[in-house]
TrEMBL record:
InterPro entries from the UniProt entry: CO_DH_flav_C, CO_DH_flav_C_dom_sf, Diverse_Substr_Oxidored, FAD-bd_PCMH, FAD-bd_PCMH-like_sf, FAD-bd_PCMH_sub1, FAD-bd_PCMH_sub2, Mopterin_DH_FAD-bd
PANTHER family per UniProt: XANTHINE DEHYDROGENASE SUBUNIT C-RELATED
Gene3D superfamilies listed in its UniProt record: 3.30.465.10, CO dehydrogenase flavoprotein, C-terminal domain, Uridine Diphospho-n-acetylenolpyruvylglucosamine Reductase, domain 2
Keywords, sorted A to Z: FAD, Flavoprotein, Oxidoreductase
Record GO terms (molecular function): FAD binding; oxidoreductase activity
Pfam families: CO_deh_flav_C, FAD_binding_5
Top-level taxon of origin: Bacteria
Domain spans labelled FAD-binding PCMH-type: 1-177
Source species of the chain: Neoaquamicrobium microcysteis
Keyword ATP-binding in record: no
Protein name: Xanthine dehydrogenase family protein subunit M
Keyword Oxidoreductase: yes
Length: 292
């Protein structure tokens, strides 16, 4: 398919992009990596009359260490996230996640913030921002605001941006000291969107019991999500088959995945329990290693 006609504006600065957004509102779309937007435009699922290209704006292609948080600029590419030394050291679960995201060519262009804005219910970045207390930095010509990830991700392909707003960056929390981590996903081919995926970080205490678990999932609901209830279930528990049975039961009772041509809702619920068991075991083993 060919796209419908649109005007193209190459923004020279954030203020320039915001000015064009304020003049065009609903009719305009920001383009970052274009890896999700261009297919949607080509299939005419969206028909913006103005595309605002932010790729030449200086200062946005950046990942910054802010101590106990990491700042992802609006043009931090997937490739940068996958290779960044700070992320590898301070948020190893994100480093592991990135090797499951799409393919090399898509990673070269696709952006962390673009993925969060796109809010695909099977994408990994929306899961990470939920799980790691992500804060979304939002700007319009008239104001700046910051939204927690859970408030930003409204539904499948829906975010909380007003028509005249763009995301200028996102900050995420780093892993607590001594936390083990793991990411498990099931997809039909490597690089495809996940049918279900789970990310876990946790610490262990002197008696090997689980502490401070954080769990995010994607592919099993209208949006990626953080599973606070499951985190509570794990707190101060020993890792054994009984606990993992309870985890699978909890997921079965609390998830409402969609059915599609790839898998039924029941299949996804069952898959979630299997992936959760693997991820919790691996995160726990890593947490124990870090204590030695
Ligand atoms: P774009 O396509 O440029 O934009 C996407 C949407 O976000 C648009 O509506 C755009 O207007 C909006 N937007 C972008 N940036 C901003 C901003 N700063 N402010 C406001 N709005 C903004 N993703 C995964 O997570 N996991 C996968 O396994 C995966 N597999 C893929 C496989 C294929 C074959 C393809 C084509 C894509 C895949 N993706 C996957 C998606 C990929 O990660 C995209 O790069 C990402 O979803 C969108 O990022 P982008 O920078 O390309 O955004």
């Amino acid at each position: 398919m060919k796209p419908a006609r649109f005007d193209y504006v190459r923004a020279e600065s954030v203020d320039h992009a915001l000015e064009v957004l304020s003049q065009n509102g609903d009719e305009a779309k920001i383009i970052a990596g274009g890896q999700s937007l261009m297919p949607m435009i080509n299939f005419r699922l969206v028909k913006p009359s103005v595309l605002i290209d932010i790729n030449r704006i200086p200062g946005l292609e950046i990942i910054e260490d802010k101590g106990d948080r990491v700042h992802m600029g609006a043009l931090a590419r997937h490739r940068m996230t996958a290779c960044d030394a700070t992320i590898r050291r301070k948020i190893p679960v994100l480093h592991e996640v990135m090797h499951h995201v799409a393919h090399m060519t898509i990673r070269n262009r696709g952006t962390f913030c673009g993925s969060v804005c796109h809010a695909d219910p099977a994408a990994e970045m929306p899961m990470i921002v939920q799980m790691l207390d992500g804060e979304i930095e939002i700007a319009s010509a008239s104001k700046r605001r910051v939204l927690p990830a859970a408030a930003f991700l409204v539904g499948s392909l829906v975010n909380a941006l007003e028509p005249d707003e763009m995301v200028t960056g996102i900050t995420i929390g780093t892993s607590p000291a001594g936390a083990g981590w793991a990411f498990e996903e099931f997809s039909r081919r490597h690089g495809d969107f996940a049918m279900a995926a789970i990310a876990v970080t946790l610490r262990t205490d002197d008696g090997r019991a689980i502490r401070d678990a954080r769990i995010g999932m994607t592919g099993v609901g209208e949006t990626a999500m953080r599973l606070h209830g499951l985190e509570t279930l794990l707190e101060e528990r020993q890792l054994d088959d009984l606990l993992l049975g309870e985890v699978a039961e909890w997921l079965n009772d609390n998830l409402s995945p969609n059915a599609d041509i790839h898998a039924s809702a029941d299949y996804r619920r069952n898959l979630s329990g299997v992936l959760a068991g693997r991820a919790i075991r691996r995160a726990h083993a890593r947490a124990l290693e870090m204590r030695t």
